[in-house]
Design brief:
The chain is mainly α. Helix content is 64%, strand content 3%. The chain has seven helices and two strands. It has helices at 14-23, 34-54, 59-84, 89-108, 110-115, 121-128, 132-152, and strands at 6-8, 168-170. The model has no long low-confidence stretch (mean pLDDT 89).
Length: 176
């Protein structure tokens, strides 16, 4: 194995990061830099908060916009995991665990117990007793913390099965 010298490109700014994510809205292939993910996450958070207030009277618009924003966040997160050499399956497991927990909360009677006119906290807590909810919560916690740690670590400079590094380039005169 040969050693190559890599040069680090300058960090992406806010506009460049958001633009790149929006141009790759549903692209789950390739690699993404940390700055691309985290600047976009800031924009995603701000737009979600503002849209929630401004468009609160238009739930269908909020739902469509929220779905597109969520899909784009998942896509850039998968590409960020790829930059570290990890599979996007982590994001799929996080999504499936979250969906499972939502269905479990509704199906267990918890949601009904806490949203009633006179909430019954004993019934709500009884709905969450047993091993299912704590185990699903633990799985969700571990998977999401793992994704977070992978996303804050620096990408690999060398090419991997997901493509070339978006941050590191070979020094002039050297080819792969």
């Amino acid at each position: 194995m040969e050693n190559y010298n890599y040069r680090k490109l300058p960090a992406m700014d806010f506009g460049e990061s958001v633009s790149r994510v929006l141009n790759n809205l549903l692209n789950f292939n390739g690699r993404a830099r940390r700055s691309e993910l985290w600047w976009y996450f800031l924009a995603y958070s701000l737009v979600s908060i503002v849209a929630g207030f401004v468009l609160s009277g238009f739930p269908i618009v909020v739902a469509i916009m929220g779905t597109l924003l969520q899909l784009s966040l998942w896509a850039v997160t998968v590409r960020r995991l790829h930059d570290r050499g990890h599979s996007g399956i982590w994001v799929a497991v996080a999504i499936l665990t979250s969906v499972f927990m939502q269905f479990y909360i509704v199906g267990s009677g918890y949601y009904e117990a806490v949203t009633a006119v006179n909430p019954d906290m004993d019934a709500a807590m009884a709905a969450l007793r047993g091993p299912v909810f704590p185990i699903a919560g633990l799985v969700s916690f571990v998977v999401n913390i793992t994704i977070f740690v992978f996303c804050i670590l620096d990408g690999k400079p060398e090419p991997n099965k997901y493509g070339l590094s978006p941050k590191y380039v070979l020094e002039d005169g050297v080819e792969i």
